[in-house]
Design a protein that fits this description.
The protein has about 425 residues and is an alpha+beta fold. The protein has 15 helices and 14 strands. It is globular and about 70 Å long.
C-alpha cells in the first residue's frame, strides 16, 4: 500500500531535490512528486511574482494522514510540511481564541514552543491519534458539561474513546453543541495526522461539535490557513519552509525485534535505562533528568532533561505499534544535536544487541545480507529466499532505517555501525 506514492516515503525528509525525482533517483516513480516538479518548473515566474503556488497533498493508505509538499522555485527543490509544521501553521491561522495545542512525544519541541508563544496551553500525549482526540474532547466537555467530564475522569487516564463513549451513553449524554465551542484546539502527530474541531449536523438538524482527524479535512484546513495568511511570493515560501524554529529531531530504529523483551521493569529495560541516565548525566551535568510515565503507554521509557527550568531535551524508547521495530527517539534544541546523537547512538546499539528476534525470518535474512556486504557488497539477488519486494524492504530497513549499510541497494557496503554490529552480535 502506498509504495512509492504516499507519506511513508517522505518520513524523515525536510527537502526533496530534483535529482531525487529524475530517472535513477529515490522518487523517480513517485507520481505526486514528479508532477509537483513539472508544474513548479512551468509556473516558476508566477510563483515568484506571488500570483501562483504549486503544492502537493500526499496521503497515506487509509487517508487519515497527509503531508503538504511545496515547490520552491528559488532553489528548484520542494520542502515537506509534516504534522508539526502543519499544526504550527493552523495554530497561527485566524480563528477563535487559542485554547489548547496537543501533540505527541514524537513531535519537535519547537512546535509546542511556538504554540505557547501564540497563547495556547501546550500538552504532550502518548503516541496515537486516539490520545490527542481524548484530550481535545475532554477539554471541550469540561466547558459544556462538567458533570459528564467528571464521570469520564473517574474512568482513569488510560480510558480510551470506546470506554468514554459507553460511560457517556449510559449517562444520557447526547453530544457537544457547536454553539458552545470556545477557543481553537489543534492536535497533531508529526506523522501527519491532524485533529481540529468541526461541525456535523445531527438527524434532527442540530449542529454538533466534533473533532475529526480525516486527512482530506486536515488538508483543506491547512490549504485554507495558508492562503488566508495573505503572504505571497518569497515571503510566503519562507514562512512555509520554516513554520517554527526547529529543534534537533531524530529517531534511530532497531528492526526485527522481539517486542516482548522491551517491557517496563524487565532486564533489558533496567540495563538500558541505567545506561541512558548515565549518558544524559555526562551530556547535561547540571540538568535534572526525570522520567515521565504516561499511563496510556506504560512500556515507553521517556526521560525528560530540564535545564534551568526549561525542557531542554527528551529521549524516549518505545515499540512501534504498526511495524516490526523499536525506536530510540531524540528531541531537543538544535544546538544540542551532537550531545543527543551520542546518547541515542549508545542506546540504539544496546538495543540492537538485546532485542533482535533470532526466530524472525527477516532477522536471519538481515544477518546474511550484512555478511555478504562485508565480503563484497550486498548481492543483486535476494538473500535467504526472500521475494523481490521483501528484499527491497530489507535493503531499505537495513540500510536507511538502521544505518547498517551505506545505501539501500545492491552493492552496498557496511557502515561503521554495521561493522560494529557484526563484530558484537555474536
Amino acid at each position: 500500500m502506498n509504495v512509492r506514492s504516499g507519506v511513508a516515503d517522505l518520513e524523515g525528509l525536510e527537502t526533496v531535490t530534483r535529482p531525487m525525482v529524475e530517472p535513477g533517483g529515490r522518487f523517480e516513480n513517485h507520481a505526486a512528486l514528479r508532477r509537483l516538479f513539472e508544474e513548479g518548473a512551468r509556473r516558476r515566474a508566477g510563483i515568484m511574482e506571488g500570483n501562483e503556488a504549486v503544492a502537493a497533498a500526499v496521503f497515506d493508505g487509509d487517508g487519515d494522514r497527509f503531508y503538504r509538499v511545496e515547490y520552491d522555485p528559488r532553489t528548484d527543490t520542494a520542502f515537506v510540511i509534516t504534522g508539526d509544521g502543519a499544526a504550527a501553521l493552523l495554530a497561527a491561522a485566524p480563528a477563535p481564541s487559542p485554547t489548547l495545542f496537543l501533540n505527541t512525544v514524537e513531535s519537535d519541541l519547537g512546535a509546542s514552543a511556538i504554540a505557547r508563544n501564540l497563547g495556547y496551553e501546550a500538552r504532550l500525549t502518548a503516541v496515537g491519534d486516539k490520545w490527542i482526540l481524548r484530550e481535545a474532547f475532554l477539554t471541550a466537555l469540561e466547558r459544556q458539561n462538567p458533570a459528564a467530564r467528571a464521570r469520564v475522569a473517574a474512568l482513569g487516564d488510560g480510558a480510551g474513546a470506546d470506554d468514554m463513549e459507553r460511560e457517556l451513553a449510559g449517562a444520557g449524554f447526547r453530544g457537544l453543541t457547536a454553539a458552545g465551542r470556545q477557543g481553537w484546539i489543534v492536535g497533531a502527530e508529526e506523522s501527519g495526522h491532524l485533529i481540529t474541531p468541526g461541525v456535523a449536523m445531527g438527524a434532527n438538524g442540530e449542529n454538533h461539535l466534533v473533532f475529526a482527524g480525516d486527512g482530506l479535512k486536515s488538508c483543506l484546513a491547512l490549504f485554507a490557513a495558508v492562503e488566508g495568511a495573505g503572504r505571497r511570493g518569497a515571503a510566503r515560501l519562507e514562512r512555509l519552509a520554516e513554520p517554527f524554529a526547529r529543534g534537533y529531531f531524530k529517531s534511530l530504529y532497531v528492526y526485527y525485534v522481539d517486542k516482548n523483551l522491551w517491557t517496563r521493569g524487565g532486564a533489558v529495560w533496567r540495563e538500558v535505562e541505567a545506561a541512558l541516565r548515565a549518558a544524559l548525566g555526562r551530556g547535561w551535568p547540571d540538568a535534572a533528568v526525570q522520567e515521565m510515565i504516561l499511563p496510556e503507554e506504560p512500556d515507553m521509557l521517556y526521560l525528560k532533561v530540564t535545564e534551568r527550568g526549561v525542557h531542554a531535551a527528551s529521549v524516549f524508547i518505545r515499540n512501534s505499534g504498526t511495524e516490526d521495530k523499536t525506536g530510540v527517539n531524540l528531541r531537543g534544541r538544535r544546538g544540542d544535536g551532537a550531545r543527543l546523537a551520542a546518547v541515542g547512538e549508545e542506546a540504539a546499539r544496546a538495543l540492537m544487541l538485546k532485542l533482535k528476534d533470532k526466530n524472525s525470518v527477516m532477522e536471519r535474512a538481515e544477518r546474511q545480507l550484512l555478511l555478504a556486504a562485508k565480503d563484497g557488497g550486498a548481492p543483486e539477488r535476494p538473500v535467504a529466499g526472500l521475494a523481490a519486494r521483501e528484499y527491497e524492504r530489507l535493503l531499505l530497513e537495513t540500510g536507511v532505517k538502521q544505518g547498517l549499510l551505506d545505501r539501500p541497494a545492491p552493492g552496498a557496503r557496511l557502515t561503521e555501525r554495521g561493522t560494529w554490529y557484526l563484530a558484537h552480535a555474536g
